[in-house]
Design brief:
three-stranded antiparallel beta sheet; Double Stranded RNA Binding Domain; alpha/beta; 18 strands
Length: about 525
């Protein structure tokens, strides 16, 4: 029997940006969109053009993403024509494949929030959707507070959804905006909706305020909805959104879903899920949830007693899916063999073919464990891992040596009498036997150190002229004034390639310098810089 198609819609960059403490830069959004595209999402809702400068800039050009880039905004404002509605015009001007309009479907909100009649709201939904369709983009209506509205006035909530569908909306998305609806309610209400609107035009978008975001999404699919909206790692306002990081592997790996539905996400793409989840956590400068289903560090960890013995004989005893199917790794916490297969897979991905019995692999596994125990995190710093592996498994050129560095921070009054802080760094290096000393100033000690380090690398300068440090994150791993610090540096070159490097030390400047050195050495190796004579 042919499987039905399920559409997956990610709103990490828009709804996820409502998370307390989250503030995406344009570069952050582009990197996350790239990860979501690699994973195989159908839609990436990238933001709200016109609402802020970052989102406006993001939609100012075609971002060449394989997924359908979607702009989010409101249906037309009451009492205004579409041509006289700046917010709606910003949507129409956006470089987007689809436009998702949020509209009121609860009669209470139409009366209190909009202050218009129910019929005027229906007319606004109709005109807004028709205008988007006429512009050549896919139209979606996010039916705000649909489940509350349906429970209060089912005929009107359904009329809003039906109006959007009749006007040409590709998807009518039923939103549980306050996250208070339970799975049995979702399943019953969605079943009523799909009796009037074809299920392959009905989506579900739930929040997680009762910790039922995943369950509610799956309940909607069972009832006939064929699009699921959510966010990576379930981030979002209040308690978050439905967690696509849990929903996606459930759809692909669990009977009842995998044998009935298909998505654009292949088994090969699914193996990038854990990586995408942890990249987002690092970007948000937060520790990954160790116990997150499927992708958490402890999701396939087994410790002591009969569990370890049973898993060694047959992993299915205590693992509901193979960890490698989602890009994770099994951890037998009493075994020194844990992690070998993961290391081998990483080596293969960077072009290093090594026999699994090569003793150097075992030493590399132990080295990674030792370094991670003191704070290194190679999951989100692939460039540092590649350098570590290459240095153990093959000859890596020593392009330059650092003899010493010094950083000074001075706070003083300038010639205008203003209180300013000046940072200056000096780096002494040896390149092919020659000594070089460079001085750099910057906006803070790390920026000054970065400028000094990359100011003059002699024969290698041309290789790093296009190298830019685009992001810098610090995490304190232990408490106290002598805390161990982990620094994650993101770099980019003129060809748009990006990579992450990591440094760890009780001294934040040392940790930063280590990450900066890795970044430069990785660039030199990647570009084939010649070894010194």
């Amino acid at each position: 029997m042919a499987r039905e198609t399920l559409s997956l819609y990610d709103t990490t960059l828009r709804d996820g940006a409502q998370t307390h403490g989250v503030d995406f830069s344009l570069d952050d959004k582009l990197l996350i969109a790239e990860q979501l595209d690699k994973l195989g999402l159908d839609y990436v809702e990238a933001g709200y053009p016109g609402a802020n400068p970052i989102d406006t800039e993001l939609f100012s050009e075609d971002r060449k993403v394989g997924a359908k880039v979607t702009a989010f905004g409101m249906t037309k404002r009451p009492g205004r024509s579409i041509s006289n509605d700046p917010g709606f015009q910003a949507l129409l001007a956006a470089e987007a494949d689809a436009i998702c309009l949020v509209g009121k479907t609860w009669d209470f909100h139409v009366d209190v929030a909009l202050g218009i009649t129910l019929e005027e709201n229906l007319a606004g939904i109709k005109e807004s959707v028709e205008t988007v369709v006429a512009s050549g983009r896919e139209a979606l209506l996010d039916c705000e507070h649909f489940f509350d509205g349906y429970k209060a006035n089912p005929d009107y909530a359904l009329a809003c959804a039906k109006t959007a569908y009749d006007a040409g909306a590709r998807w009518v998305v039923l939103c549980d905006t306050n996250g208070g609806t339970l799975p049995e309610e979702v399943e019953a209400i969605v079943a009523e909706v799909v009796a009037h609107i074809p299920g392959d035009h009905v989506g579900i978008h739930v929040h997680n305020d009762t910790d039922n975001g995943v369950a509610n999404s799956l309940a909607a699919v069972r009832a006939g909805a064929r699009q699921i909206q959510g966010t990576l790692n379930g981030i979002g306002e209040r308690c978050g959104n439905a967690n696509l990081t849990s929903i996606i592997p459930t759809l692909l790996l669990k009977s009842g879903y995998a044998d009935r539905f298909e998505t654009k996400i292949t088994p090969e793409k699914l193996t990038t899920l854990t990586h995408a989840s942890r990249i987002l956590d690092e970007m948000l400068n937060q520790a990954p949830d160790r116990h997150a289903p499927y992708v958490g560090e402890a999701a396939f960890a087994h410790k002591g007693g009969i569990h370890v013995s049973a898993v060694k004989k047959d992993p299915r005893t205590y693992e509901h899916v193979p960890p490698e199917s989602v890009g994770n790794v099994r951890k037998l916490l009493v075994s020194n063999q844990g992690g070998r297969s993961n290391i081998l897979a990483e080596l293969e991905s960077i072009g290093l073919t090594v026999s699994k019995d090569d003793p150097r692999v075992g030493r590399l596994v132990e080295l990674v464990k030792e370094r991670e125990a003191v704070g290194y995190a190679y999951e989100a710093a692939e460039a540092s891992f590649e350098l570590l592996a290459r240095r153990m498994l093959e000859t890596v050129p020593q392009f330059f040596d650092i003899d010493s560095f010094r950083v000074m921070v001075e706070r003083r009054h300038n010639a205008l009498g203003e209180l300013v802080t000046i940072s200056e760094a000096t780096v002494k290096a040896r390149i092919d036997g020659d000594s070089v000393m460079s001085v750099g100033e910057g906006n803070g000690p790390i920026n000054a150190l970065d400028n000094a380090l990359r100011k003059d690398l002699g024969p290698y300068q041309s290789y790093i002229d296009d190298l830019k440090l685009v992001d810098y994150k610090v995490r304190i791993l232990t408490g106290g004034t002598d805390a161990v610090t982990r620094v994650l540096v993101e770099s980019r070159d003129g060809e748009g390639r990006r990579w992450f490097t990591v440094g760890v030390s009780p001294n934040i400047v040392d940790a930063s310098f280590e990450a900066l050195l890795d970044s430069i050495n990785y660039k030199l190796i990647r570009d084939g810089a010649p070894a010194p004579s």
